[in-house]
Amino acid sequence: MNLTNRAELTFRTVHADVVVRALSPEMSESIPRTKVDVLGGEGEVTIRVQADDLTSLRAALNSYIRWANVAEETAKEANR
Description:
By secondary structure, this protein is α+β, with helices and mostly antiparallel strands. It has helices at about 15-25, 55-80, and strands at about 5-10, 35-40, 45-50. It has a single domain, classed as Alpha-D-phosphohexomutase, C-terminal domain (TATA-Binding Protein), CATH 3.30.310.50. About 45% of the residues lie in helices and about 30% in strands. Helix 1 packs across helix 2 (about 55-80).
């Protein structure tokens, strides 16, 4: 694996711990030609994606952004 293409997305949320826990099962799944790390810290979530090619990078990043959004919206609704 070459993993020369990289992207990093960091966003702030009061639900950072929930989002990181929600994404952790996805990290055990393998997305072809990619490596993904999800890190959480005080009110922030960072998603780091490395991939062999831009198509794989885009696909992995889009998936993790969608999953993070679902986790965030679910946490908001649960706290209403």
